[in-house]
Amino acid sequence: MAARCVRVALALVALGLALTLHAQPADRSARETEAQRKLDAIRAELRTLGDAQRALDAERGTAAAAVREADEAIDREARGLRDIDDRIGSQQDELAVLESRQTALQDSLGRQREALAALLRSAYALGRHEQVKLLLAQDRLDKLARVLAYHRYFQRDRVDRIEGLLAELAQLAEVVRAVAAQRERLDASRAEQTARIADLEAQRGARRALLAELDGRFSDTQQRIAALGRDEMAVVRLLESLRDVFADIPQQLDNAKPFAQRKGSLAPPLVGKLLANFGARMPDGRTSRGQLVAAEAGTAIRAVAPGRVAFSDWLKGYGLLVILDHGDGWMSLYAQNDTLQRDVGDWVAAGDTLAGVGTSGGQSSPALYFELRRNGRPVDPRGWFAPR
């Protein structure tokens, strides 16, 4: 709209000049006055449009900041939820070990009880048998006393073992109860964390709706392209500033194989539906400098090659973003994530999980936006991945 108004203004000026050259003096003065009035009106309209555009841009900035805040809050809560899930898994493993031990002790206790019962039956039978013999032969009294003493010794030993097993089972039962109580507390914490994430998702949805409404009002195509161009330049500047951040990254990684020699053998960051290839227009109007791949929210995004995390944060136009430095000026970018699982400075191997697929940055559906760059310049990723 601004460009159209400028063209109209120039046309009016040209018309005014033409009238000045060909009209009579009185008529020329009237036409000049009318042309000036129209020109002043156009300039006033341009100023009004400019003010409105700046105000709308400020609103969009505020809304984008709110979306960023929601994205980062959800990322923090998701990290907490993963920690709770890890602890629940550990508690579950511990419970399984304890329950297995409890079962073994109960089996042993059963065997000891059966042995004691058999021993008692044997002693009883032996006693009765020997008493009959005693009536017939008094010289067997010493032997009977020794046998009964042995039986009492074995009985005492069995009783001691049973008491020990019962004590151990009692202690084990206390441990099992404590672990189960801790598991219940973790389950409750997980439920609370999940509820907080759901609440944050609702807030993010409202903020994205507001941002979408503002984007709809921000209808001037040239200004939209300029705004997106500023986003692109922000990434270029970021990449330039990151180029020397990790000077200790060796030129050769992973068995002395430079990144450039990995062309045709990289593993894809994820497997999904290709929405936009290099050079194609993406759903938000930008031209793709990489690949946009749709996948379910939360799908693991993996490193295409070894490297070091140079950036792991939110960036306007890209949402939650991870950038890997692979050395020799090569970088890979993974954008629009819902969660970040690596911190700046972390070393990663090919295939390590970096993030989870999401819609951060105000996107409408979950997808990964992936780029390869060399010295800050986009490189078409086609031909770099190993054939499937």
From TrEMBL:
Residues 1-23 form the signal peptide. InterPro entries: Cell_wall_metabolism_enzyme (IPR050570), Dup_hybrid_motif (IPR011055), M23ase_b-sheet_dom (IPR016047). Residues 288-381 form the M23ase beta-sheet core domain. The keyword Signal applies. Keywords: Signal. GO terms for molecular function: metalloendopeptidase activity. It comes from the Bacteria. PANTHER family: MUREIN HYDROLASE ACTIVATOR ENVC, PEPTIDASE-RELATED. This is Septal ring factor EnvC (AmiA/AmiB activator). It comes from Chiayiivirga flava.
